[in-house]
Specification:
The complex is a heterodimer. By secondary structure, chain A is mostly helical. Chain A has a domain of 173 residues. Chain A contains 12 helices and no strands. In chain A, helix 1 packs across helix 7 and helix 9 runs parallel beside helix 11. The radius of gyration of chain A is 20 Å and the shape is globular. Chain B has 3 domains: 141 residues, P-loop containing nucleotide triphosphate hydrolases (Rossmann fold); 68 residues, no CATH class; 65 residues, no CATH class. Chain B is globular. The N and C termini of chain B lie far apart (46 Å). Classes of the chains: A mainly alpha, B alpha/beta. The interface between A and B is large, with 31 and 41 residues.
């Protein structure tokens, strides 16, 4: 039996995101990232279990690096997924189908939530284990953990945006290598506070950093859509998200809160 | 009144200095129409225009009674279009089911249950039900061809464009393909671009011969064969006056061209007529060059 009803086009996005999401989380490149993240988290969990862990800030770096690596490999995987038509020579075939490119990009962006959920589950497991061993993260540390999860989504969106604007899988690989060298310092310079995976708990700016990350993720997602969407669809959200990024970046660069008590939890 | 699925009027398409289509005017309705022509004749260009993936430089195109230059109409056309390109691509990491399922989503089938039913149906129709869960990279060339055919059948298209669908299929698969196309429900308009004159003879109610970007013939396969009447003969020896000739299995020679007086004329086939038409066109181009 064939379905002949014409559904609203937006209803295709959830269906696409399910298929793309499953393909992403079962992609060998992403699975390598998961393995690294699990190793990093396992190393931290071991220090918790044997009682040598002092704090999340001090000892959680292995888990953070693991999740960051997973994010970078998520970027490569989403980039490959976005370039699948080009690599598989299905561009023409699929151009004859009714679903337009922005809908497909939206589906892929929604699919990037799958790796993000994997990161969230992994870190939530570590938090759970830590809580049973009297090493629950503080409020600021939870914000930082959420920031790491959002970083995975951001990197996934970057992979899709790169595919839209520079449709060559080599570029994402180069960017991935470059990101490996963007390492936050122990005492970060002002500009380093703009690195997505910078931890700013000590400076009391973690919430602003999270706002910055969320804004940046939306900007990148809209950039991915901008290539094929009508400008009027993305202008308003783009303006709002850029405003969030600029405002939060200004706070991060100045290293001060605009009002006492706003930054700290 | 039967709807015209493809309506081309004075369509011109150039690629650099080459006029791939040079003022083509034709209408194609329900039933199977064969599109014959040599390499570079403009068949694939015509198919791509009909598939809404290529716009003509001039002339007008109407598909399924809609205007493909209008964005909303184009989406409506694509909803009712099935397209098997000349060189179909596949997602190698997907299974056959996943690949067709993905195309079904791109055909706006968002209801999961209905979509999966439809995917299973077209895979069965294409004879791939048993290998639905096999990765595309593990399928043979013939199976991949059928997979591409299966995705074109999703949602019972009103217009089905098949570009060289039987290339790479073994004889049994080709016969199965003919069975499939001839039994399609709701009598869609099928445009079948091919080099295989046997497929045209076996399947098509109508045949269009394209050469040099223009339509050289438009009629039934019998009418095409009739154009070679009196121009095909057999002889014991080769004949240099023939446009084309070949030695047959029984040792005699079959000639196409202007027969000598007293030649033993024979009944022409679609092959003979096509070769005469296209061979003549080729000779003309070579002479002009």
């Amino acid at each position: 039996m064939s379905s002949t009803a014409d559904p609203p086009r937006d209803s295709v996005v959830p269906a696409l995101s399910r298929v793309e999401g499953w393909q992403l989380v079962s992609h060998p490149i992403f699975l390598v990232g998961v393995a690294i993240a699990v190793l990093g988290c396992a190393a931290f969990v071991r220090t918790i279990v044997v009682g040598t862990a002092i704090s999340w800030d001090e000892d959680g770096w292995t888990a953070a690096v693991g999740v960051l690596m997973m994010g970078i490999l998520t970027m490569v995987a989403t980039n490959l997924a976005a370039l699948r038509d080009r690599r598989s020579v299905t561009t023409e075939q699929h151009a004859s189908l009714p679903v337009r490119p922005p809908i497909r990009t939206s589906g892929l962006l929604a699919a990037a939530l799958w790796p993000t959920c994997v990161a969230a589950l992994l870190l939530a497991s570590v938090v759970g284990i830590g809580a049973t061993q009297d090493l629950a993260p503080s409020g600021v540390e939870v914000v930082q953990l959420v920031g790491f999860v959002v970083s995975v989504l951001l990197l996934g969106a970057i992979g899709i945006a790169l595919a839209a604007w520079v449709p060559n899988p080599f570029v994402a690989t180069v960017v991935a290598w470059a990101l490996l060298f963007v390492t936050p310092g122990e005492t970060p310079a002002a500009w380093q506070s703009l690195i997505p995976w910078q931890t700013l708990g000590a400076t009391g700016l973690a919430a602003w950093h999270l706002a910055y990350l969320c804004g940046l993720t939306v900007v990148v997602a809209l950039l991915a859509l901008a290539k094929t969407s009508r400008p009027r669809v993305i202008v308003a959200p783009m303006v709002v998200s850029i405003a969030v990024v600029v405002a939060s970046a200004a706070v991060l660069l100045n290293g001060v809160c605009p009002a006492e008590g706003v930054c700290r939890f | 009144m039967e709807q015209t699925a493809i309506d081309l009027t004075g369509v011109v398409k150039r690629f650099g200095a080459v006029r791939a289509l040079d003022g083509v005017t034709l209408g194609i309705g329900p039933g199977v129409t064969g599109l014959l022509g040599p390499n570079g004749a403009g068949k694939t260009t015509m198919m791509r225009i009909a598939a809404t993936v290529l716009a003509p430089d001039s002339g007008t195109v109407r598909l399924l009674d809609r205007d493909p230059t209008d964005a909303d109409d184009r989406v409506e056309i694509r909803r009712r279009l099935g397209y098997l390109p000349q060189e179909p691509g596949f997602y190698q990491r997907f299974t056959a089911f996943e690949f067709v399922d993905y195309v079904a989503i791109l055909k706006e089938m968002s209801d999961r249950r209905a979509r999966h039913e439809e995917v299973r149906r077209v895979l069965e129709v294409a004879g791939l039900g048993d290998v639905a869960n096999r990765k595309v990279k593990a399928l043979s060339g013939g199976m991949r061809r059928r997979l591409a055919f299966a995705q074109a059948l999703l949602r019972d298209p009103g217009l089905l464009l098949l570009d060289e669908p039987t290339a790479g299929l073994d004889p049994e698969q080709r016969l199965r393909f003919r069975e499939l196309v001839s039994n399609l429900p709701n009598r869609p308009a099928v445009l079948l671009s091919t080099h295989m004159t046997e497929d045209v003879t076996a399947l098509c109610e109508r045949v269009i011969v394209v050469a040099g970007g223009t339509v050289r013939f438009d009629g039934s396969p019998d009418a095409l064969a009739a154009t070679a009447r009196g121009r095909v003969w057999v002889a014991e020896t080769a004949d240099a006056r023939a446009v084309l000739s070949w030695r047959m299995g029984d040792g005699r020679h079959r000639h196409i061209g202007d027969p000598p007086a007293g030649a033993e004329l024979t009944t022409p086939t679609v092959d003979d007529a096509y070769l005469l038409m296209v061979g003549g066109a080729r000779d003309g181009r070579e002479a002009a060059a």
